[in-house]
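Bumping with the actual sequence this time:
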Amino acid sequence: MKKILHIVCSPRAEGSYSTRFSSRIVERLMASHPEAEVLVRDLASVPLPQVDSDYAYTLAGARPDVAAPGSLARSDHLIAELEQADAVVIGTPMHNYTVPSSLKAWIDHVLRIGRTFVPTPEGKQGLLPDRPVYVAVASGGLYLGEHARQPDFLTPYLKAALGTVGLRTLHFFALQGMVRGEEAVAAEWRGAMALLERQLPLRAIALAD
């Protein structure tokens, strides 16, 4: 593993549970691949502009005759970051049952017809090779389990959107009910860390070294 793309989305910066947990995932990956380079794409502190008319040409199957400095060039740059990454780590809050607008803007830039996917008679076919994607999701409410009281449009959306470009190996880590007090927060953190230990165990990393 040579490169890890770490995408963070929360406006709460270092106070964000999703940012902090996604950083733990990066640390685990770095423990087994200390030579890897980490590229942090902070979508909250440096938000992406929305796609513009230059980008819209590609949706119609055409491309401007002249090089455009707008969202098409930005899309190329973001796609290149994704292509070069051997693993992707996303830390995101759940906003109104789904992804925050900052993450949606990134997806709009990288999910591009003719560049990262093509239409076929069987449906859209991704053009990027698969690689692991680790997603830490923090939410104020509960959307998983028997006590769930709100819908989850985030998980199926990310599976569909990233799957469209060819990224199908997704691992989700839920941090639910993070407004329910210190004990509830601590229990959620322990549960997520236990799942992380099962998926990226430090003991196995140490033995491999």
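The tokens above came from a reply further down the thread. Residues 182-199 form the longest helix (18 residues).
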